[in-house]
Amino acid sequence: MPRARPELPTLKKVAAAAGVSASTVSRVYSHPQLLRPETVTRVRAVADELGYVPHHPARALKTGRIGAIAVVVPDIANPFFPPVIRAAEDRAHDRDIYTLLADTDEMTEKEVTLLVQLQRRTDGVVLVSSRLSTEAIRNRSTLHPLVLVNRDVEGVSRVLVDTAAGMREAVDHLADLAHRHVVYLAGPSSSWSDGQRRAAVLDRAQRRGVRVTVLGPHRPEHDEGMRAAAAVLETGATAVIAFDDVLAQGVLAGCAAAGVRIPQEMSLIGCDDILAVRTAPPLTTVRGPSRQAGALAVDFLLRLIDGVREETVERLPAPLVVRETTGPAPA
Question: Which domains does the chain have, with CATH numbers?
Fold first, then answer.
């Protein structure tokens, strides 16, 4: 005879074991912020011990919510995005909300398709470094709760990492080291962050009397940076500011292959501080608080899902961190 399936613990059994009402158990998994932290901790511990799993479809029928959000990124292989994703998942998990992950592979058509699909499967979306047009983003935000990370669209709640300020610091740092010709190694042409970083470099360089050669666009990949190293060396510049650490790491490898010493013959600066301490020598870079951005974005999104429709904007500082890939301009 087939073995009978074990009876799954119910919400009422958890309530009885924890000594609370069934409605309290329900709130632990739907609105824990309404309860005392010690109550939430005790009920979750009892539920975990019993093997209780909240029934999301039942909750959706009762509340009209699915109990899921999505995080959409342009390239999961880029080291900047995993900390954002992890922080978003952790914050959502605290509210007993599960997280779906989607990768657009830098393709706007795929991004649109995913957002349409996720509208039916989630309560809202955290959209990171979107490559869509401003009009497309505004349109999607009217159809489904949406929060942006690193995309500045008026009328849509967003978390912005202010790497432009760090890029201005980077130019000042190089100018103070007597560099007079700098390469800006650009990222994707559809990247809002690249536009902000490039504009900051060009503006501050003009003020400091530094010549800038812009090379790109480039997909933020190690091999792209490595291939770009030859073009960088041909410019005669004495320093490079890369769109991100991944491109900078590629340039570092390309310069090493060409026998160019960093920082003695070429100074190098990255952005995001995602690989900097792992390079040899350690990379000077602009530090972006990616985990904080992911957590805040989920906070903003959950407020939208709860019916708070006001626009929320947070700008996070991203300072320059000087390490060992920058030095005085060669004579």
Answer: 11-54 (1.10.260), 66-161+289-317 (3.40.50.2300), 162-288 (3.40.50.2300)
